[in-house]
Amino acid sequence: MLTTPHSLNTALTPGDLRRVHHIALNVKDLQASRHFYGTILGLHELTGEEVPTTLRSLIAAGKVTNFVTPDGTVLDLFYEPDLVPPDSDPHRAFTRANHLAFDIAPQLFDRAVEVLKQNQVSLDHGPVSRPTGKGIYFYDPDGFLIEIRCDPA
Hints:
Blueprint: E1 22-27, H1 30-40, E2 44-45, H2 56-60, E3 64-68, E4 74-79, E5 100-103, H3 109-118, E6 123-130, E7 133-139, E8 145-150
Parallel strand pairs: 1-4, 5-8
Antiparallel strand pairs: 2-3, 3-4, 6-7, 7-8
């Protein structure tokens, strides 16, 4: 009998992983990142009892802040004041991560583009239109590539 990794229980099966639990990013300037993700992008910052108990001491020490996306994914921002990307050119990839994408309703896409421009957020490229929808790519305060995208109208 031929066995496969799946039949030996050495691999997870589709559906075993339920969702993305959280995304953790290192940031050089915690206040600039809080403003960017909370004020400009409008994500909800976790405070008080909303904060996981495992992170409360780090928050109290000013080492992390947490936001939650509309679908419930937590975004942890870890304060790393000495953070320097290996390359100062944001067009050169310096991590295995490519970008973080947020979905928005098609009727709100143009408004999102205007908000980015009004806040003088550093744009990479876009807006672009594709068969899969529209997107705009821009940088957070630490040079990490972010996308806001929407399905076709």
